Amino acid sequence: MGHSVAIWDHKAATEWTKDWNGIDQVVLRNPQGASARAIFKPPKAIRGGIPICFPQFGNCGSLEQHGFARNKVWTIDENSPPLHQNDSHGKSFVDLLLKPSEEDLKFWPHSEVRIEGLETLDYLDNLFKRERFTEQGDAITFESEVDRVYLGSPNVIAVLDHERKRTYVIRKEGLPDAVVWNPWEKKSRAMLDFGDDEYKQMLCVDGSAIEKPITLKPGEEWTGRLELTVVPSSFCSEGLDHLPS
Fold first, then answer.
1. Which of 185, 116, 107 is nearest to 145 (CA)?
2. Angle at Cα 200 formed by Cα 182 and Cα 189, nearest 5°?
3. Looking at CB atoms within 10 Å, which of 36, 87, 111, 213 has the fewest?
4. Which residues have C-beta within 8 Å of that of residue 241, sequence separation ≥ 6?
């Protein structure tokens, strides 16, 4: 003899109310009666739930702690797509939307420059006590302070400047590592010989020998060489191997 299972109506279990500040809030309830909500009192951060750290984490960028998204008032998507049928039984959910204002967009970090040739490499992060990490991105872009030593880097590295449609090609010999540095806003203001906004127009990419110091025995020689050339970005459309020699 078969039996029927009641279908959980997530919308019926979602209550739209006002908090004590008069701000819209959503209360979610599960089949057992438990509910969840957060207290929101701008500019205080919301505790609990899934934190939205965007477009930066912590204070590693030029914005407030963890970025602006978590302290904004989000709107509710009335026509949100349902959860997958196999994943929806007994669950409550709500879809929220964030539409940034023109003021937000003024401070939204964006990068017109990227570095290619250092993908998948290990690096020492000077912002985290020289802790060792592995580069995960397809290319290195800049949205906050960067101070890294990439270990065992290739002898050809490309810095692509999209806005000016040109590429800086760095060729090095005898220098196994590469330093990538941009002080960003806060440290730029602290340097007397560095303009407050000059971090937007500069990037340091240096050949170096940091992980393993170069030691010479009597009579031995060592040569380090670094060459910087500028080519139109069209030369790089097929990758580093196709750059002109």
1. 185
2. 70
3. 213
4. none
Looking at domain 113-236, its CATH architecture is Distorted Sandwich (2.70)
Structure tokens that stand for 55 in this block: 């477009």
Sorted by where each begins, the domain ranges of the chain are 1-108, 113-236
Cα 12 to its chain centre, rounded Å, is 37
> Strands 204-208, 225-232: parallel, antiparallel or unpaired by DSSP?
unpaired
Task: Please give the full DSSP string across 139-175, using - where no structure is assigned.
Answer: SEE-SS-EEEEETT--SEEEEEETTTTEEEEEEEES-
User: How would you write the pLDDT of the chain (245 residues) with one tens digit per residue?
Assistant: 444 445 556 666 777 787 777 777 778 777 777 777 666 666 666 665 566 777 666 766 566 777 777 777 777 777 777 766 666 566 777 777 877 676 665 555 556 889 999 999 999 999 999 999 999 888 898 888 999 999 999 999 999 988 888 999 999 999 999 999 999 988 999 998 899 888 888 999 999 999 998 999 999 999 999 999 999 876 554 555 555 54
Closest CA to 142 of 93, 202, 188, 88: 202
Residue 185: φ, ψ to 5°: -70, -50
Helix (H) or strand (E) holding 182: strand 177-182
Both tokens of 197, joined, read 């906004």
Task: Please list the residues that pair with 169 across neighbouring strands.
Answer: 158, 229
